[in-house]
Amino acid sequence: MSPRRSTARPRLTHLDTANRPTMVDVGAKLPTLREATAEARVTLPRTVAAALAASGHRTKKGPVFDTAVIAGVMAAKRTHELIPFCHPLALERCAIEIEAQRGGVLIIRCSVAVHHRTGVEMEALTGASVAALTVYDMCKALSHDIEISSLRLLAKRGGRNDFERPRAAPKPRRRKAVS
Known about the structure:
By secondary structure, the protein is of the alpha+beta class. The chain is built from 4 helices and 7 strands, in the order βαββααββαββ. It has helices at 46-54, 64-77, 79-82, 121-139, and strands at 32-43, 58-59, 62-63, 93-101, 105-116, 147-157, 163-164. The strands form 2 sheets. It has a 5-stranded antiparallel sheet. A two-stranded antiparallel sheet has the order 2-3. The protein is elongated.
């Protein structure tokens, strides 16, 4: 016998029965471990990426990556002050990682965890986005042609539904033709 599928349409959780905005009542839920990871991509012009690498990722404003990490953690902890219906959470873990890739691309990941009745996706997304904005702020004197893109949730665990974004298959390498 196959499992029954719900025919109910998905509904927005932040609307009450009269379709007014409301904070979700999580009082009846049991606290469980909730984890989430999000990422943002920052693309720097090659000249900016080269200047940052040559300076040890420092500008006149200070250490770019260290400052972005601090800003991202601070933002994740204060998400409820920025997003109206987010519950205030005492995060148990928040880590920001910045990976410099070829072509002036920075991948910024924010991972958070808490034992609570509600998820932490918004905290992870907020942490990654503010860390990316901090990189922009610290590097804008070098160029305004910096692009922040692809803010996205990578994974969440705990609660009713788990989610993991499939990893993109590696691009095949082109082989040079031998003449």
